[in-house]
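Ticket opened by: R.M.
Priority: normal
Category: complex prediction / small molecule

The reporter submitted a protein together with pyridoxal-5'-phosphate and asked that the result be attached to this ticket for the collaborator who will pick it up next week. Submitted input follows.
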Amino acid sequence: MVDSKLKKAIGKDSKYYMNTFGKRTPVCFTEGKGMFLFGTDGKKYLDLLGGIAVNILGHKNKELTEALCSQAKKYIHCSNLYYIKEQADLAEKLVNICPNAGKAFFTNSGAEANETAIKLARIHFYKQGSPRPKIISANNSFHGRTLAAVTATGQPKYHLPFEPLPKEFVHVPYNDIQALKGEADKNTCAVMLEIIQGEGGIVSATKEYLEAAANICRQTGALLIIDEIQTGMGRTGKFFSFEHFKLKPDITTLAKGLGGGVPIGCVLASNEVSQSFSPGDHGTTFGGNPLACSAGLAVLEKIKNSDLVNKASAMGDYFRENLENIMQTTKKITQIRGRGLMIGIKLSEPNAVKVKDELFRKGYLVNSIGDDILRVLPPLIIKKVHIEVFCKDLEKILGEKK
Ligand SMILES: *Cc1c(COP(=O)(O)O)cnc(C)c1O
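Result attached by the on-call engineer:
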């Protein structure tokens, strides 16, 4: 069947849209419902990627849609020159959920949340009269695409074309305590880490590493910034993935799932650190506007009422069990990574793109990272039946002779 709507979209995209995403998966969606997206090709897709950890309530969630429509009918935006009830309400809720947080600030994206965290860490020491510029992050990390966030991102391929980059950013091997110890000093304002590296291939930090990092920060006086942009919002079976450990980050960043699809990011910081921002030091036009914050409030309400954090944990376990069975029967999976509903499937052959494409043809949306990792980040509303049908087809695909 020729999908003329898709064909037209591809034509316009290649003519008019900057080519940063390369050859995209050939589908255009018209509608979503729950775990599914419907394409202009007439096909139904089981969404196991959830817009890359964004659509945590799935598609067309009733409460979220109603909150958005109701807010849009009142007013969408004013300005941060005025008090915004929805913003204050969402800040209160997130500060109360986040251990160690005293205040919040809203942004429009993850990169901007990290950008804000970096500025906050630097200004914190500047205001104390002893500037400490150095930011330490990990190799293979991902913190976003704005200039400072991309500099913190430990992947040189994202750096080179954009030099000169902001100064005093250093990268150390992930999970290497000695390397971090060797780099952290009195010139360091912050150590910035993901609990599980998402774009880096679903690689988890060890408990020892995270606790050592917290200690190193305490000893040197550096702030600990935890990037929960992909891992947060309940995905790993705790609201924040750092809650699996004895960690008290000075600054925590959120984005992806927070608005359930509406762009919003958030920086949470201890009271002491938050106070380093004074009027005029930072700002945003759109960040924390009534529409985005209404979405955040609806998402938090739904997570609580439907117990989605515990469900993410249980469904994550069930997903793993099913994948382990495939691992045993086909030997085509060598490792299952991640935690809760943040899952990396390491394949025995470098054919992740091919497997992803085959899954797509069968009606499943997942993502591949590098040559041999499949990434699964489903909405937290996923049910056993979705896991079962996916695993059955994945087993079939992996079992086929190539
Ligand atoms: C996606 C992501 C970001 C960047 O978020 P954007 O909204 O794309 O700017 C930063 N950190 C982590 C861990 C992410 O997964």
